[in-house]
Amino acid sequence: MSVIERIKVEISVVIGSKQMPIRQLLKMGRGAVIDLDARRDDPVWIYANDELIARGEIVLLGDRIGVSISERVRRATLTNFA
């Protein structure tokens, strides 16, 4: 196995968000549902190691949920702000 194949990357997909008091969060039990501020057709944000890398959309794959990448996000560099 090459060195590249052993590198681990954490991928996160943000579908929506919700603000709530911590006391409400602590009261939630198994099976609780958090109502997000997103709709079915809203874009999702894809992060690799906590850095935004792409935008996409939710796709259904049988009984599983996937993400289709629709746009790569380029990293901002210091030269962009000069």
Could you characterize the architecture of this molecule?
The protein has one domain (10-81): SpoA-like (Surface presentation of antigens (SPOA)). The protein has one helix at 22-27, and strands at 11-14, 44-48, 51-61, 64-72. Strands 1-2-3-4 form a four-stranded antiparallel β-sheet, with no helix packed on it. The chain is mainly beta and 82 residues long. The N and C termini lie far apart (42 Å). The longest helix is centred in the first third of the chain and has 6 residues, at 22-27. This is Flagellar motor switch protein FliN. It is a peripheral membrane protein. Its main location: membrane.
What features would you highlight for this structure?
82 residues; mainly beta; Surface presentation of antigens (SPOA); four-stranded antiparallel beta sheet; 1 helix; 4 strands; extended
Question: What is the level 1 CATH name?
Answer: Mainly Beta
Query: How many distinct folded domains?
Result: 1
- Tally of helical runs: 1
The CATH superfamily is known as: SpoA-like
Count of β-strands: 4
CATH architecture: Roll
N-C termini distance:
42 Å
Shape: extended
Rg, nearest Å: 17 Å
Under CATH, the topology can be stated as Surface presentation of antigens (SPOA)
Percentage of β-strand residues: 35-45%
The strands making up the biggest β-sheet line up spatially as: 1-2-3-4
Structural class: mainly beta
Please outline the major beta sheet.
4 strands, antiparallel
Give the ordered list of helices and strands. Answer: EHEEE
Helix content: under 10%
List segments where confidence is low: pLDDT < 50 over at least 5 consecutive residues.
78-82
Arithmetic mean of pLDDT = 88
Organism: Sphingosinicella microcystinivorans
Membrane topology: Peripheral membrane protein
GO molecular function: cytoskeletal motor activity
Subcellular location: Cell membrane
